[in-house]
Write a structure and sequence with these properties.
- The structure is a single chain.
- The protein is mainly α.
- It is built from 16 helices and 7 strands.
- Among the domains are: 58 residues, no CATH class; 150 residues, no CATH class.
- 49% of the residues lie in helices and 7% in strands.
- The strands form 3 sheets. Strands 2-1-3 form a 3-stranded mixed beta sheet. It has a two-stranded antiparallel sheet with strand order 4-7.
- A hairpin with a 2-residue loop joins β5 and β6.
- α9 runs antiparallel to α13 and α10 packs antiparallel against α11.
- The longest helix has 17 residues.
- InterPro entries: BTB/POZ_dom, SKP1/BTB/POZ_sf.
- Pfam families: BTB.
Amino acid sequence: MAASYREIASTKPFRFIVGSNAIEFFVHPAVIVQHSKPLANLMHGDMREAREGQAHIEEVDENTFARFLEFCYTKDYPAAEHSIVLDAASIEQEKQPSKSAEVNIIPALIDVPPAAEDEYMDDAGPALAFDDNWASCSSRKKATKASYKGGAHLQRETPPALSTKRAAAWKGFQNMTWDSHFNTSKTPADQARPNKEACEDYTDVFLSHAKLYVFADTYAIEPLRTLSLQKLHRTLSMFTLFGGREGDIAELLQYTYQNTAEHEAKMDKLRQLVIKYVSCNVEKLRSNETFKETLAAENSSSVDLIEMLLPRLD
């Protein structure tokens, strides 16, 4: 049962000291009690924290805790912002665009029959997009180039056909759902934003959802646990895995297996979501060092990945 505004406003704030930087948060206990029994016991039980009216939570960073509090008050939370990363190669390409980049970009601008375009995109999905050559942030400036060269019409390159099993695997990922036991009629605080260029680093975006899932799992906040899965799934479904962005997914995979528990009977839900996405994109991820380190570590990631890949084998 949700706390009334009067009940919330009339309670003395509880002091949380969060993260390695010891950031202070003052929260109305009535707001938290309705979401988490472990935290309710911490604030109102027989422990020292309840007597002192304060608690230290060092294993959680302040940004994750702030998102949790926003969820407590609004039933929603915003993801972290993506960052822009320009490496030396990107800067050099900005100064001297390669001839090959121009050749690859121009065909992508040629009109094609809508039916053919829709059919390909429906099968592929954002994460399986063929157009890896949009990897440079400077490439967008080439988009104004003419669609004709030397008077000859350039035909758009035909994307390679996805195998039926690979397309089915991606469809299976897109169709993943989780039961929600709270009201989702409100407009989310943030709409998932698809990445557009390879310079857009989505590591923090992914991890903001994953960290909130781990927090919710630790403190038995099922609605938040479900919401974080839904938001991460939506973001991954819209994410284009450009060349150079493999690390974003590899970091998410590593965090997931380092911070979730092994279950004999059933795979952790965050692990299931992330490893299923990885299995759809393993060809692109296989050379990433963080990805290889995670699979070689003492966890079940390699076994889980093999199980996810089996349906794709002939």
